[in-house]
Design goal:
single chain, 196 residues, alpha/beta, 6-stranded parallel beta sheet, 31% helix
């Protein structure tokens, strides 16, 4: 049995991922008293727009957290852009207390030039999608964003494109993009960030 006083967080996965990528993070947060939800976005290969994925997130929240006035939100990789669209364009800011972005290409990744589907094109540096989100990025201030990134990221290029100009940014010396969901340092940083 859960209580509305128990902190809740929704996890949003990235490109090619499923909710299974969060198994270590989920266990880590649950052991510390969090009620953890994870949304499954389909398809997960960028064949639909980030906006469409954000509507999936919105529906998930409305169905799974209807009785909760507020919750926290964590977006991993492209899931961070899905989360931002939900926050900035679908009224998510009205309910989300804290937003944590883990290796999110807020300003795009050069690798996205190798992808031609809509999700890939939207993650290219300077895309109209990213420019639109970043023109009013200061709106995120109300949910105290935390951006976590590693200089060893080979998927977000350049890696500092994970840094937002608002909120707090933490650089962690974690060996890879996906290890940001497994390394003890990043797990601790996520838990600390969500607890503030």
């Amino acid at each position: 049995m859960t209580s509305n006083r128990q902190p809740a967080v929704v996890l949003v996965h990235g490109l090619w991922n499923t909710v299974n990528i969060f198994w270590q993070l989920r266990a880590y947060l649950e052991a510390r008293g969090w009620l953890v939800y994870a949304v499954s976005l389909t398809p997960n290969n960028g064949d639909i727009s980030i906006e469409q994925q954000a509507y999936q997130l919105k529906t998930f929240v409305e169905e799974s957290l209807a009785d909760r006035p507020s919750f926290d939100l964590l977006g991993f990789s492209m899931g961070g852009l899905v989360s931002r669209y939900y926050l900035q364009r679908l009224y998510g800011l009205e309910r989300v207390r804290r937003f944590v972005g883990v290796v999110v290409s807020h300003y795009g990744s050069a690798l996205a030039w190798l992808r031609w589907n809509i999700g890939g094109r939207q993650m290219r540096p300077g895309s109209s999608f990213l420019n639109d989100l970043n023109r009013d990025v200061e709106r995120l201030s109300v949910c105290h964003p935390l951006s976590l990134w590693t200089p060893y990221d080979l998927l977000v290029l350049p890696a500092h494109h994970c840094c937002l100009p608002v909120g707090e940014t933490q650089r962690l010396s974690v060996s890879s993009h996906d290890n940001m969901l497994r390394d003890e340092r990043s797990l601790a940083a996520i838990a600390t960030g969500l607890s503030r």
